[in-house]
Amino acid sequence: MTASPPPFRDPELPLDQRVDDLLSRLTTGERIALLHQFTPGVERLGIAPFRTGQEALHGVAWMGPATVFPQAVGLGATWNDDLVRRIGEAVSTEARAMRAEDDRVGLNLWAPTVNLLRHPLWGRNEEGYSEDPRLTSAIAVAYTRGLRGDHPHHWRTAPVLKHWLAHNNETRRDTSSASVRPRVLHEYDLRAFRAAVEAGAVAGVMPAYNLVNGRPNHLSPYLREHLRTWTDQDLLVCSDAGAPSNLVDSEKYFDTHEEATAAALAAGVDSFTDHGTDASIITGRIQGALGQGLLSEADIETAVRRHLSVRFRLGEFDPGQGPYADPATHAFDTPAHRALAREAAEQAVVLLKNDGLLPLPEGTRIAVVGLLADACKTDWYSGTLIRRSTPLDGLRERFGADRVTFTEGVDRVRLRCGAGWLRVPDADEDGPLPAAGVALDPALLSGRTDLPPLTCGPEPTEFALVDWGCGAWTLRAPDGRYLSVADDGFVRASADQPGGWVVQETFALVGHGDGYLIEHTGTGGYVSVAADGVKVADEPEVFAVEFVERGEDAVARAAARADAVLVVAGNDPHINGRETEDRSTLALPPHQERLWRAARAANPRTALALVCAYPYAVADAHDRLPALLWTAHGGQAAGTALARIIAGDVSPAGRLPQTWYAADTDLPDLLDYDVIGSRQTYLYFDGTPLYPFGHGLGYSSFAYDDLVAVREGDTIRVAFTVTNTGPVAADEVAQLYTRAPADAAGALALPHRQLAAHRRIHLAAGAARRLEFLLPVSELGFWDVRHDRWAVAPGAHEVQAGASSGDIRLTATVDIEGAPIAARPVRDAGLDATGYDEQSATEIVDRARTSGDAVRAVDGGTGELLFRDCDFGEGVCAVSVEVSGTGAVDLISGSTATTVTVPATGGVYDYAPHTSGFTASGVRDLRVRLRGPLRLARLAFTATARRG
After folding, report:
1. Are β-strands 715-724 and 204-207 bridged in parallel, bridged antiparallel, or unpaired?
2. What are phi and psi of 258, to 5 degrees?
3. Each residue of 893-938: pLDDT tens digit?
4. What is the mean pLDDT of residues 507-513?
5. The one catalytic residue among 81, 132, 234, 240
6. Above pLDDT 90, what percent of the chain?
7. How, if at all, do strands 404-407 and 366-369 pair?
8. What DSSP element (H or E) covers 811?
9. Is residue 379 over pLDDT 70?
10. pLDDT at res. 441
């Protein structure tokens, strides 16, 4: 007689009941084993091993060949929710297809990244969608819906949002703290995550490496206070790689790993990505914490429940493993996927400027020049290209190989030292190349050692030298291979492209007397000559650099012979500005500056195409060149897409997803996360950008007419008409912004304007379309720190329709009734220190390890907080400050001032109240000055006794 399957394998039962049944069958040890990224199988229950985490930012990554779509910032530039949803569908169907062939391919996808692109020098700018929370969340909702699939109960894949929370720096990323005040938290950072979670297509989040307000994100109380309140579904919180150990090792937040692991689990981390595939260290820490009473069986059960919930939704425990396991639903590198990759690459191109040069007519003789003209770059989170198209490929295919010439523009050099000329020895090209490895973590792949190292002798090798900026140079041999350093320290011409977790293909030329030392960036050693070959060592060799040809000279010759020139400049995603490395400047690298200037001098009909993962400050190029374009690295179809734009087969309609600033001086410090106080992004920037948020041109023109905005209860119905008034069919991205009443905006430091909605539409020449939007009234609001609530300022709010944040065509007003934003009720409610309106030289820190915030002066010096419109009512006579540490707190309000002296209270978490006389009445501003190494959590006021 056949035994009936256990209840957890019955798909007819409710999900919670199935999870309960499986949980009840697991031992404590088996439960703990499920808390590591690599979970073992449970053979007695027929449960297979499982891995959390499969990178899939713009295609399935790290698992070999896959369809490669444009970088995430390029997908943001499409402003096309439907397109991004279809890309998500394609990526998830490829993940399923790849898993059917290789069970190492995971279905818990670590994508998308929804960190806001508030600062363009962030190294991982390529991974985000936009500086705007509304656009970011719209694109994230679309991508996760595509990844999830449309089945009501089963998920094709289970996406995890990265990186919770307020994470925009690689500099000291595991020890730096983002100071995020309540308004920035609620109005900016949380909003990027919330919509995707509420849409029901998100399986979880990954906390970031950094700290927020002095507390590691892997202990974030916001996981409980905000994230888990947005949905009824179980969310799986997966740690970032190595971050649990950082709590002790680099952050020194706890003394023992048992304490740290227990605290992370209690805060809401459910899956620990640490120590690679070796789960024993993490499970041992959890066992130890359980034995020490630092966590309970219930804590473990809660995390395991969330883990199992994801696996049930993926269909793992269903007969046949659910509908998405059916091979008929799988697709890999199909014609449809290839067409989608091209469509995405075309829609991501942004035309920044065009004085009539583009599109180029048939028969144009084109010189395609520049370091990226014949490149199709991938990034750290790309799959392996199955097919590739460079700008040169695309233009030759479109215009004809006989009409297109190419010059890369590298500097061609020879290098000589005391031992002779640096040269690449002959290698056995007939032997088989080493098999390309496929690793779950490509950082584990090492460089080649099967080729002979460089030598020095009487015959030189001519190298292609490129200055990528910020002291990063590459050297390439005549066979196209880059000089690289393997684990044995020898220098070889062995790499197809720069890459790896620690890039081994970049060098710095350090001036030394009449020559140069060649420093290897990856190891910090210097290129030196030994008897057995050239290697990196502590003792440097001095090299003379002989320039055979300057890149700008070759570019000038090619440009002079062409009807038009396309300079393709930008970045290599593995060099300067990438994970682990922030940029230091917005400037285009000097080498590439030389190239476009040489092309322009030889031929005024020169366009600059920037193929890059982040904005550059190219004000001079804007002034001197007739046309500029930008596209992120566009994946496998990048070159074809760019060529079709250049030829006018497609009218460009990408729009900038972030502000392009004119100079470095427009930027605040990278670690300043207060977008309000430091006036960051289009929301608050007071200067004139080079190109504003939402900017993008095309080959047609559009008129906006008949804007109507009417309040209907809790929503605002907005409609306007867009007409294609130009000569060709084209896309337009209609953008809808709102702006608060002028008096409230000024008094409360509200945004200049903020995106409320957008829609990308296609219109034939002469065609028109009426667009309608429904805006929740609450979207007009802000976080009122005076009363700790979301509020909408009363008055006439503007609704603006236009082609960008800097090109508003129509404006209407909507009156919002209500009482004015009241003054702070400080006499009755006191003040939280973090609820300030302005600050100087302070930072928010953790009040306790588990929750709560306080404020301290930076470096224990002097800092100041400003609280506007404090209502002291009929009067107060004393103030009590809740502080830890030692120092003084000065309170100044008009002509009234007092100082509260704070003796040492003990540790940083040992708070005590200290009181001083302080008299004030009515509504007035209050300045609070902090002096010394103290932390201020709250202020409370004693009301003046009423006289009977």
Report:
1. unpaired
2. -65, -45
3. 999 999 999 998 889 999 999 999 999 999 999 999 999 999 999 9
4. 96
5. 240
6. 95
7. parallel
8. strand 807-816
9. yes
10. 63
Sign of CA dihedral 551, 556, 561, 566: positive
Q: Can you point out the beta strands (E) in 116-213? A: 158-164, 177-178, 204-207, 211-212
- 3-class secondary structure per residue, 575-633: CCCECCECCCCCECCHHHHHHHHHHHHHCCCEEEEEECCCCCECHHHHHHCCEEEEECC
Nearest CA among 218, 202, 222, 200 for reference residue 210: 218
Contact 800, 739 (CB under 8 A): yes
DSSP 47: B
Instruction: Give which of 354, 360, 362 is closest to 698, Cα–Cα.
Output: 354
Please report the pLDDT score of residue 905 as a whole number: 81
635 contacts: CB under 8 Å, gap ≥ 6: 58, 59, 67, 68, 69, 70, 71, 74, 341, 344, 345, 382
C-beta of residue 896 within 8 angstroms of C-beta of residue 919 = yes
Query: How far is the C-alpha of 190 from the C-alpha of 116, rounded, in Å?
Result: 10
State what percent of residues in the chain have pLDDT above 70.
98
**3-class secondary-structure state, position 666:** helix
Closest CA to 591 of 628, 623, 550: 550
User: Catalytic: 299?
Assistant: no
Q: Answer whether residue 431 shows pLDDT above 90.
A: no
The answer to whether the CB of 926 falls within 8 A of the CB of 893 is yes
Give the whole-angstrom CA distance, residue 240 versus residue 150.
28
Mean pLDDT, the chain, integer = 96
Identify which of 509, 510, 475, 507 has the alpha carbon closest to the alpha carbon of residue 493. Answer: 475
Sequence-distant (6+) residues with CB within 8 A of 257 are 244, 245, 247, 248, 285
Residues 501 and 505: their CA atoms lie apart, in Å, by 11
Using pLDDT thresholds of 50, 70 and 90, give the confidence band for residue 945.
confident
Locate tokens 């989608």: which residue?
340
pLDDT digits (tens, 9 = 90+) for 583-633: 999 999 999 999 999 999 999 999 999 999 999 999 999 999 999 999 999
C-alpha pair distances (Å), 746 with each of 265, 456, 699, 752: 43, 68, 38, 9
Q: Classify residue 283 by its DSSP letter.
A: H
Residue 469 scores a pLDDT above 90: yes
CA distance 636 to 385: 6
Phi then psi for 136, rounded to 5 degrees?
A: -60, -50
Can you tell me the mean pLDDT for 111-131? Answer: 98
Q: Which two tokens stand for residue 674?
A: 């207060």
pTM of the model as a whole: 0.97
Report whether 172 contacts 661 (CB < 8 A): no
What is the rounded distance in angstroms from the CA atom of residue 144 to the CA atom of residue 126?
A: 18
Asked whether the bond before 165 is cis by omega within 30 degrees of 0, the reply is yes
| Burial of residue 495, with CB atoms counted within 10 A of its CB: 0-12 exposed, 13-18 middle, 19 or more buried | buried
* Of 525, 708, 579, 8, residue with least CA distance to 241: 579
Residue type, 260: A
The 10s digit of each residue's pLDDT in 282-303 is 999 999 999 999 999 999 999 9
| pLDDT for res 275 | 97
Q: Alpha-carbon distance 465 to 482, whole Å?
A: 10
With tokens 């929740």, the residue in question is 776
Tell me the helix, strand and coil percentages in the chain, rounded to 5. Answer: 25, 30, 45
Distance CA 882, CA 911 (A): 6
pLDDT of residue 446: 73
Burial track 201-224 (b if 16+ CB lie within 10 A, e otherwise): bbbbbbbbbbbbbbbbbbbbbbbe
Mean pLDDT, rounded, for 184-191: 98
Contact between 692 and 659 (Cβ < 8 Å): yes
> Under a CB-based contact definition with an 8 Å cutoff, are residues 657 and 117 in contact?
yes
